[in-house]
Amino acid sequence: MKRKLKANNPTTSEIAAITQIALAAFTISSFSCEIKPGKKNYLKRGCNLFRTFKNSIILASLSLTLFLYSCGGGGGSTSPSLPSPTSTGSSSSTPPPPPPPPPPPPPPPPPPPEDKKIYETREYDSQYGLGLIKASSAYARGASGEGALIGIMDTGVDFWHQELDSADKFTSDSLFDYETRSPSTDEKRHGTHVSGIAAGEKDGSGMHGVAFDATIFFIAVELSSAPEEYEPAVIDETVDYSGLDNFWSYAESLFIQRGVTVVNGSFSFQGNINDYTESALRSSFPKTISTLAQQDIPDADKTIFVWSAGNGGAYADQGVDFSSPEVFGGMAHLLPELQTHSVAVVSVNSSGEISWFSSHCGVTQDYCLAAPGESIYSAYSQNFPINNDYEPFSGTSMAAPHVSGAIALLADYFRNQLGNTEIVNRLFVTANKSGIYGDSSIYGQGLLDLDAATKPFGQTTIVASNGRLNKHYSEMSTKLRNPGLVIGDGWLSTLKGKEIAVFDQLGAPFFKPLSFTYKNNLSSLKWITTMQSSASRKIMEVQKNISHNTNLVLGLAKNNFGEHNYTKTLWAKDLRQLKYFSVKQKTSSDGFYFFGEGLSPSIYFGQNENREKRFMRYKDYESPYLDFVNEGTFIGGGKRISDSSSILTSLFKGVPASNRIFGLKQEDTRGLLFEYKLKSDTTLLSIQSGLLEENASLLGSSFNGAFGSITDSKTYFSGFNSSFSFSNLRLLGSFFHGQTDPDLTTLGLISELGELSSSSYTLGLEINNFFVLDDSFAFNISQPLRLNKGKASFLLPIARTRYKEIKFEEFEENIDPSGREVDIELAYTSSFLGGTLFTRLGVIKDEGHVDRKRLDPFFEARWEIQIP
Fold first, then answer.
1. 61 band by pLDDT with thresholds 50, 70 and 90
2. 473 in helix, strand or coil?
């Protein structure tokens, strides 16, 4: 059973204040009820009683004094002139006629994405206000109000109602009772309805509140209903408000001391704020104003006060000016110290137009919002054990808890990292200002919009620290690309499971997986349409001795394999037929030089010294580090030292051929390669050593934006390439190893890169004349170039404080890949039907150096014929 707590007894001075309150008729602002046929109209009965008592001033003063004394103690003032706060709604049996029909409502919003639909249940739809403020968008993004604390001061609450009966819906120190008695069922109805709108539970029944997982700190106070005749409060030196000031200062301080995020105030004094002066308010309520101002509390921690604007429009037939809010909703207009953490709320109907009974934003337009408040379906208190009744109420009392719930929702959504005043400002900035909501004199900052409030406003940035300063980088510019295979999934594995905070233009944090920055590019459409499947893009290599000491190698895209120009083709034409060339020129009997473009210098190193015309190669045994420049230019030379040995060197620059596949642009990689070669009739040994300097990349991967930047990375590599022939059998092998030293010039999300090591190997066996003359059988086992060891340190922005300080997390991870690709291949080549038959089959373990926990088999068969 829930505990019902009573308010602490007030001090002597507070008792004196209570007696002053006894002379004021407190009224519930914004309370009018649409009663179903057959139900008792408790509100109208209360109003009739109030009008009866009002005919006798002496009886009213006495009864109210006793009434409020029971709430907090005895004693009191004898001043009969204190005004009554009044409802901003009409409770008369015949409400004033509404104004002329308003202009057509704005068009309905487009249907939400499918992921929101799961939140748009029957429970959600029964309270149309949730749809009007687009609450499902916030729910779909993970907001529910969990952990947020809403303060509600109202007439009472039915905590047994099924919308409010969870064990943690109310704090244990909530004050459910008046000082000497419990609220009646009728007295609980307004507070129950308001509480349901703000934080009613999402349990599949009835309706649910805006912040359905929020907790409520409730304080019950004795209030009365709005009068039939509009009665503006008199606030000047002729009325002694000291008692009332003491009481409200004390009551509101309870919320502030409790640290609630937002307090919902669905009550007020009647009277347009424009009819009062700053000096009158300050002299009448100095303590209350000081309490509400929270001068010694940082803006981030200030409790937000949400006030119903009032129902002045319901009294339009009496000539009431409802162009601005009533006293409580409008007081921030006269008291600047309240403006950053006060919100006035006007009511709109189900079409999104201002309600006929609602006061307008007017002079409070800079801190005023519109929210649904007309015919709002919410929890309705009945005598125990009935706990599942609902009724539609109308009034700005119903609009205010939509905003209070929204503030709690954002506090949860942003993980309590936004300051309270930032949340309010965010609701103002993101409110719907289109169409009719552009009229700020009516709608203030616009219609509450939780879709806009829970998505980034403007461009998002990532904050990176270099140890001294924080710098903002565009989220769109922050990418880590890894089109190559050397690092495999090393980068991705490091980024997975890590979260990063990005910030919008209002400073709000949005939390994303760090892996969203990783780009493993798909093949570009241009490459697919010009190379991958078009037979005319096959390259035929041609060697030709153009003189006795000059050799020319050409790579030609010339063999169209049946394509012609008489009909249109599916594939885009690349008119550049010469794909690459190289020239080797002897300078003496033991010296030569060479140069080329469109390929790497590997054609003159290792096993490739004697190149023959071919359509394909099964395995390359050359240095894998030259793949980083296999579309480039080079120049080099060599000299024979003896009959069996020679040296060779080359300067080169270029980019990987994969750049064309992925449509990437990259600065040239440069390098230098040396080779010492031993060669006999049966044996070849090539020992190579070189330097590879990548510009702004690291073994084919690159990053930019908030990650920081690399000026260059230098890889020092060496290895050997060898073969041994015996009869028709040939053994081949190669091994290469490299050490990479990156130069991280701009620190960012990556704060440090250690030295990286990589390697590759290949072993093979070839048997010629295996079955028939001129056929060839081969067996190969290889590991492509792989990063074996490498570490990276990260400094990630993971959160911010309520005081706008960015919080970083530092960690170090190995970036070597999860798997090790090993290719095992059997290949067979033979002459067949005037052409050449190529077949191969094999298995690949951990393709791309990704641990796949399986073997992937492959098979290929091709028959090619060269047409003169």
1. very low
2. strand
CA atoms of 446 and 366, how far apart (whole Å):
10
Tokens of 489: 């999934």
Residue 621: count other Cβ atoms within 10 Å of its Cβ: 26
Q: What is the pTM of this model?
A: 0.80
Cβ-contact 669, 692 below 8 angstroms: yes
801's tokens: 């404080």
Residue 517 placed within a domain: no
Distances (CA, A) of 94 to 45, 53, 228, 236, 242: 13, 20, 10, 33, 37
Q: Are residues 448 and 595 both part of a single domain?
A: no
The angle at the Cα of 660, spanning 618 to 478, to the nearest 5 degrees, equals: 125
Asked if the model's pLDDT at residue 513 lies above 80, the reply is: yes
Residue with tokens 């649904």: 372
| pLDDT level of residue 557 (50, 70, 90 thresholds) | confident
Q: How many domains does the chain have?
A: 2
Chosen domain end from 454, 481, 501: 454
Q: pLDDT of 581-629, one tens digit each?
A: 999 999 998 999 999 999 999 999 988 765 543 333 445 688 999 999 9
Beta-strand (E) ranges in 358-452? 368-372, 376-380, 389-394
Find tokens 């038959």 and name the residue: 837
- At 544, the pLDDT band (50, 70, 90 cuts) reads confident
On the question of pLDDT at 76 being above 60, the answer is: no
- Segment 393-403, tens digit of pLDDT: 999 999 999 99
* H-helix segments, 414-488: 420-430, 440-443, 450-453
HEC secondary structure over 31-78: CEECCCCCCCCHHHHHHHHHHHHHCCHHHHHHHHHHHHHHHHCCCCCC
Query: Does a structural domain hold residue 594?
Result: yes
Query: Which CATH number fits the domain that encloses residue 752?
Result: 2.40.160
- Which of 405, 445, 412, 429 has the alpha carbon at shortest distance from 262? 405
Mean pLDDT of 170-186: 94
Domain that holds residue 435: 122-454
Q: What angle do CA 620, 621, 624 make, to 5 degrees?
A: 85
- The strands making up 304-308's β-sheet, listed across from edge to edge, are 215-220, 149-154, 262-265, 304-308, 342-348, 368-372
Cis peptide before 385 (omega within 30 of 0): yes
